[in-house]
């Protein structure tokens, strides 16, 4: 049985509307062309028969073959060079930008066209093309039709795809297009796959060579409009580019990851759909975009969040939304898919939207606090109502159990990180009271804030193990407590916090700087690893922080991408890819190293 490549084999393409993954073997194994959280036309990532577009030399992986890849500078245009015994050939892959799109226009009107350009570098290399679209995550096998202009149209259900391949004479097969051709040094062949709707917008027609040049310029112009003056500038700029690639430009929402159901453990069932935008990630994302000098993206993300939340009453604020603010993200299983290396179920949708997660208001309030100087001395009505509503909801519910930061699907508990986030809500509300009108009640809010703090210090500290633990009354360590100094709940130099950091590093950490979320967690969680870096800076250990940071960033793949976790035994990347939180953690840790006193 065919086995999917390692997760780290994949490079990320984006047009800030949708994204694709292309492997070292030249196969595009994931593409949801309508938008990030839309239906896939290539999903070999989750089942060998669920669709792909492979373009590579004949005999990939054989004797004398090697591959090297890199993004074109300041872009998500990926260049892969295949070296064979007969010569070398480059394949440059991109998702096309709209013609003329520059700076913050990138992605707002993307044409939904995949570009692949083959360039002969030396010798004469025989190439193989295998185009096998399978819309609806592999449920549909399209009809293929030869076109008068030399292309091939694939149509099934709501989807139309049109493949063009330069001067090559392609012929439609029964369920795919296969073709072999030779490329000589200096020869260039442009290909494109354009997406359209069966009963709507027809596929765009682009010149792939011109579109590739235009797309490269669009990405580079975007990066030129953003600056960063801290340590590790190349790493930070690249991670900021990845975050831009995960941003749905039409709304400003940032997808947590490109993919669904890549497992936390091979063969396990913790396989979730991360193609939505989490309010929990909100303040971390805002901080990262702020650090990477992306003020317009910060403002648009904030506007998306306030619109998505809307008016609310006593019901918990949802933890996540669709990329245009959809609330109902009900989950179902794709039982026809085998899952990545047999890891089932494959989930579409995410039922975490139904959970009570008390940390969410604190993330939103932290973002409001960060933007307070841009939001005016007196907030507009809708913003004022949202802030007041979040504050009063936390004041009334902070004592309840919830599902916690890791979104457990087991029983609710009194998670420490959730209580700290409730404290954060009340603390920020007190600081913002003078902008909230007559309904502000800072004296009462301060009392609730102090009650929460007392409860955390009393119920969250475990004297026997000498650390704050994951939940009230628990003896189990949890790496989420590393967020306490990051959120300024408690100084990292406080004896209890310092003891906690040492315990987490000793019991949940590894020599390579990776940090597990809890004792039984089989993998290092990259965000927690970067939190450890921040904590080490704040305890006055900058050299150890830098050494840890440099070890952790060494787990990126060859083109600088992170998934969610790292397998401790093999070093394999695990979880959905690329993962926004991992790149956010890198940016924030690099800035903490650069500016230890940054807020």
Automatic annotation (TrEMBL):
Q: Carries keyword Transferase? A: no
GH15-like domain: residues covered: 231-591
Where's the Trehalase-like N-terminal domain?
A: 2-176
GO BP terms, alphabetized: trehalose catabolic process
Q: Provide this UniProt record's keywords sorted from A to Z.
A: Hydrolase
| Gene3D superfamilies to which the protein is assigned, alphabetical | 1.50.10.10
UniProt-listed InterPro entries: 6-hairpin_glycosidase_sf (IPR008928), 6hp_glycosidase-like_sf (IPR012341), GH15-like (IPR011613), Trehalase-like_N (IPR045582)
Q: What name goes with this protein?
A: Glycoside hydrolase family 15
What Pfam families does UniProt report for this protein, alphabetically? Glyco_hydro_15 (PF00723), TREH_N (PF19291)
Q: Name one GO molecular function term.
A: trehalase activity
